[in-house]
Structure formats: C-alpha cells, structure tokens
Amino acid sequence: MSQLEIFVILVALGVLVFVIEVVRRRRLSEGYALLWIAVGVAGVVLGLSRHLIDRISGSVGVSYGANLVFAGVFLFLLVVCINLSMHVSKLEDEVATLAEELALVNGRLDALAEGAVDLREHDDRDERPLV
Amino acid sequence: MTGLLVIIPALNEQDTVADVVEAAAVDLDAQVLVIDDGSHDATVERAREAGATVLSHPFNLGVGAALRTGFRYAQANGFHTAVQVDADGQHETTEAKRLVEVVDAGADIAVGSRFEQGYETGRLRRTSMRLLSRLVSRHVGVKLTDTTSGFRAFGATAIDHFADAYPRAYLSDTVEALMLAADWHLTVEEIPVRMRPRQGGQPSAGSLKSAYHLIRLSLVIALHRFRRPRAGGSS
Questions:
Q1: B59 near B33, Cβ under 8 Å?
Q2: Count of the separate structural domains present in chain B
Q3: Which residue of A has its CA nearest to B168?
Q4: B229 lies in a domain?
Q5: Assigned domain for B230 exists
Q6: Which residues of B touch A125 (CB under 8 A)?
Q7: Which domain does B61 fall in, by range?
Q8: CA distance B175 to B195
Q9: Strands B81-84 and B31-36
Q10: pTM: predicted TM-score of the whole model, two decimal places
Q11: CB B231 within 8 A of CB B163
Q12: What CATH number did the domain enclosing B35 receive?
C-alpha cells in the first residue's frame, strides 16, 4: 500500500469519525449523517481501489484515473449543494410563514387584551383553555 | 373533565375525522384534541363541528411533531393521561379504553400491538418489523412485538418527558420514543388490540422511501446508546 493510499484512507476515516461524533452530540440529523457516512465509506473504498479506477477510466476513455474521480466527486458535490439550496429555500418559506402566523396571533391577542374582540367572533369553537 | 386527553394527529382526513372525534368524546368521556398537521382540506372544520379542540400547524411537520404539540398541550393543561388515536378510523375507541386502563393501572406507556389480531403486511416489512422489535425489546427490557404501532396511551410522567423531547422524524416518533422511554426509566407495556381496516386516506410512504427510513432508523438505533441524551431526560 502506497503512502498516498494510506493518506486517502486516513482522511476518509477522519470524515467518518467526525460525522459520527456530531451525530452523537445531536448536532447533525441522522438523514444528513447517512449521506456523509456514505461519502466517508466511498472515500475508503476509492482509496483502496486504484487499479479498479484505472481500469474503469480506461474503458470510458479517460486517460488519467484521477480525473475521472475528480469529475465524479465534483458532480456529486454539485448535486448535494443544489439539494441543500432547495432545503434552505424551503426553510426560508417556513420561517416566513411562522413569522406571519405569529404576527396574526399577536394581533388577535392584543385585540383580545383591549377587549375589542371576542375570540369566538372569529369562529364558533367551543370554550377552551388559551394556550 | 376526566383528566384524559385524546390526541388525534390529522393530515387531510376530512372524511373520517368527525366520526373519530365523536366516538372518542362519547366512548372515552374525554376532551378530544385534533392536531391538524397542515391539512389542505376541511379537516379542521369537520373536527371542530364534531366538538374537538383543534390546533393547526402552519405547515406539515410530521406525525412526531403533531404528537409533541399534543403532549405540550396536555402538559400545559394538566391532563394526567393521554391516548393517541389515528384520524383515519383504524383505531377503535373500545381498544383505546383498554390502553388507558393499562396506564391507569400503573404503566407509563401502553402500546397497542396489531400482530396478534392478524395484522397483514408484506414479507419485507414484516421481517424488518420483527428485527426492530427484537432490538428495541432488548433495549427496553420488555417483550414488544409492534414497535411501530401508533396506538398508544401515556401517563403523566411520559407526557412530561415527551412534551420536551418527542422525536420528530418518521419511524423515530414510534421506535426511538420507546428507547427514550427506557432511558428515562418509564415502564412500557404492550397489549394486543383489534384494528379496523382504513376507512379513508392514504397509507404512508412508498418502498424506496421506507427503505431510506429503515436505514436511517438503523443508524439511530445503532448510535442510541452512545448519544448525548435528548432534552427532557433530566426533569
């Protein structure tokens, strides 16, 4: 095993340990952890299979194996980034909706405090605790 | 007021929710709380007309979050028992009553198992559910056959803990909740229950998605013992 292979595998193992540690501390949800654990495992596998990479890249017409790996990893990270952007967009929408709801609830509470509105004017629900 | 709260998480269940609410209010003599998890149909109106208190999430958050809202409501309003009932009409109130009796007799959590009454699922699903039961039973220290059952009753201590830290993710809301209960030294008891076939609505999750959820859950179970405890464990 070459020094390079050992280095690649150590980095991948480091990623694995780090990911599991942040999940353990509940700072990363399990769904995302699964993704990054897969990345760590893939790193170890790629580090161990240089000949396989060379053979695959030869058969698809890429002369230098590392370029194939770079291209693959680049594409993968691009997909992850787009996916994360989509998640952030959804979160933004949800935060906005929450803030709007809160504003409406506060408005109703203020009106209620001034005695201007009876809650039951809005909808004829039964008497219930205010929580 | 009997101190019993019926918690009904509901998502687009306008066809069945009214019947479920009425049956629960009459048969269990309890206050009925419907958590509307972002429905786009008339679920909220139907539930209110039937006499339920309704809390609406502004958008869909999942069954786990709906239950946590229910537990927080139960805690804030001093209910000492809560029973979770599905809005699609699968859970019979006579069976819910038996679950509540188990809690009244001293258990912190009563789980209704679907298996002894001939619950039918695909083979893959059944195998994974059996494996799950084995793993969770070992952690909880009680023999459980149906760890993903959403037909459960909770005592005051369980309500307090879960109001702080009920897991939100799909499958975690049922399975991980049991493991957390064991960490908090709550007693879990399982009894067989009868279930009706669905009256309406769609069953949850396709096969690719459930495979993902199972893998996710495996990670949760594998790491559970080593993880920092969720909030709520200390109270």
A1: no
A2: 1
A3: A29
A4: no
A5: no
A6: 48, 53-54
A7: 4-224
A8: 20
A9: unpaired
A10: 0.84
A11: no
A12: 3.90.550.10
